[in-house]
Design a protein that fits this description.
The chain is an all-alpha fold and 142 residues long. It contains five helices and no strands. The model has no long low-confidence stretch (mean pLDDT 80).
Length: 142
């Protein structure tokens, strides 16, 4: 086998079908999710013990807190980001010189991170509001 054939065989392993549902797709993405969750829990356990004032531990704590904030208000985050992306995409369309959406990947990531940083305080306030309501409140489900 040549190197190209080996690479093609390796890539063929990762080609999965979402529809119709395949076991390979399910196992691949659940496995990735479990590895990410393990990494977050591991970073939570390792960095604060090493040096709580170091930038890696502060960064890991910030990422952990951000994931918790977005994860505690998933429907609110979904609706909020859905309605925020419309105006943001209109602004990007007006700013780009072409009539097509041709934005480089670094610019797209910068826009995405800016949007997430704008949504974090709103999601945090809504999460605080949810926790302040009674346990049988309808707000707990949103």
């Amino acid at each position: 086998d040549t190197d190209e054939v080996r690479v093609n065989k390796l890539l063929a392993f990762f080609i999965t079908c979402k529809y119709p549902p395949s076991l390979a797709f399910f196992l691949l993405y659940v496995g990735i999710d479990l590895v990410v969750i393990y990494a977050f829990f591991r970073s939570q356990a390792v960095f604060p013990i090493a040096n709580p004032r170091s930038w890696p531990s502060r960064t890991a704590q910030f990422l952990w807190d951000t994931c918790l904030i977005f994860g505690q208000v998933p429907l609110f985050f979904y609706v909020l980001h859905f309605w925020t992306l419309g105006p943001v995409s209109a602004i990007v369309a007006a700013v780009t010189p072409d009539s097509q959406y041709k934005v480089s990947l670094p610019a797209c990531v910068l826009i995405w991170l800016t949007l997430l940083s704008m949504l974090r305080p709103a999601c945090q306030r809504y999460g605080d509001f949810k926790r302040s309501t009674p346990k049988d409140s309808l707000w707990r489900y949103i």
